[in-house]
Each structure stands twice: as structure tokens, then as C-alpha cells.
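Trying the structure run again after the queue cleared.
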Amino acid sequence: MGCCNSKTGGESAANRISRWRSTGIVAFRDCKLKTFPSEVLELDGSVRTLDLTHNKIVDVPLEISKLINMQRLVLADNLIERLPMNLGKLQSLKVLTLDNNRITTLPDELGLLVRLERLSISGNLLACFPETIGSLRNLLLLNVSNNKLKSLPESIGSCFNLEELQANGNSIEDLPSSICSLVNLKSLCLNNNNVHQIPHNLLRDCKALQNVSLHGNPISMDQFQQMDGFQEFEARRKKKFDKQIDSNVMIGSTGLDEGVDL
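Done. C-alpha cells:
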């Protein structure tokens, strides 16, 4: 799938483009690219998946908006500092992976990606998140770990289908009260932040919640256990792991170690 290999194998540019058009998959992994591959932009609506993982790309061109049928965009492990303002034109996008870049801000147009299901932007330099994220009603997974966030936007409570929220390794102090509206949330990971309390009705209202991980925060186990709905949460958590063990699912040594530090 990687185009670097096909070039060394003697594949002509015409054959390569023909293959891209027929499969809808374009991959330039580990190709040491410094600029966005311009030939991809000529494919317009043919591209379904674009993977540019582990290159040295700094800028994403405005012309990326021409790839209107793209469903999966993977730009992890590059040197990207910002995203184009017209990113919201990629209306078919379901997966957006931006891990390990140098992104400091996200455009408000992110909220126009209404079909987005998975957004991962860990290992960047984000200090804040746009309120427009609340428009991502189909979002299932949000990973903002290892950034510089001090808070999460109040609008996150409108991401009604969110099942997994990973925000480890930030500087988050408080959670927005709207997070209690995430009735489908199953996993909340906030390790190594500055969280000293969480909304008191989180465990009561988020009835699907099975995993809360708060290691490396000022909050105490006593505070956590005294929250409304703790017993019901604990029952769901235990049932989840009992099911995994009964199914012979292999789990690591920390697999059963959830909650907060003692």
C-alpha cells in the first residue's frame, strides 16, 4: 500500500494513479516527505483513505478540501503546526488522526465535520479546544492526551454518542458540568492532570460508564467513592472485567487497576 515501495519497484506514475483511483487508498508512510504530495490532490473525489504517517510534512494545503469523499485522514508523526481553515469541507470524514505533531490550535471549522467518529490529536501543543466540537454528534472516540489543555469545552456535552474520552497528560483542573450529559460514555481517562474534583453527578448520570482513570491527580479515593452512583458504577466496572475474564480476554497487570491513587 505504501507508494515508496512501489516507486522503487518501478511502478509508473500513471499506473500508480490508476491504482489509487481504483482502490481509493493512498499511502505515503515513512517516505520522508517534506511537502504534501501534490499528485494526490488531482484525484479529487476518488480518495477514500489518505495515510501520510511518519513524514516531515509541515503544512496541509487548502486544496485538501478537493478530496470531498475522503473518509479517513491519517497525518500522525509529522511536523504539522496548523490545519487549513477549510478543513470543514471534508464532509465525508469519519476518522481524523493527528497524533504527534506540533499543532497549537484547531480551527472552528472542525465542527463542520459532522460525520466524524474518531478524532485523535494526542501528543501536540493544544492549549484549548474549540467550542464547535459540540457539533460532532457522531463522535465515538476523542483522544486529546499529552497536550497543554487546562480545561475541556462546555460544549463537549453535546457529543451525545461519545463512548471514549482520553485526556491523559494535560493540565486539566476541572471538568465541565456538561460531561454528565454523555450518557453513552464508557471510558474516561484523565491520568496525570490537576483534577481535584469531578462533577458530583457524573457516576449517577453517565449510566454506561465502566472505566474512570484518574491516577496522578489531587482527587482522593474517598472523594471518588462518596460520589452519587459510585456503587452502580463499581458494579458495571466489575461486570465488565468479569466478562473479559470469562471470555479469556488477556489483560495487562494494570487492567484491573482503575480509579484514583490512594
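The radius of gyration is 21 Å. Worth checking whether this holds up in the mutant runs.
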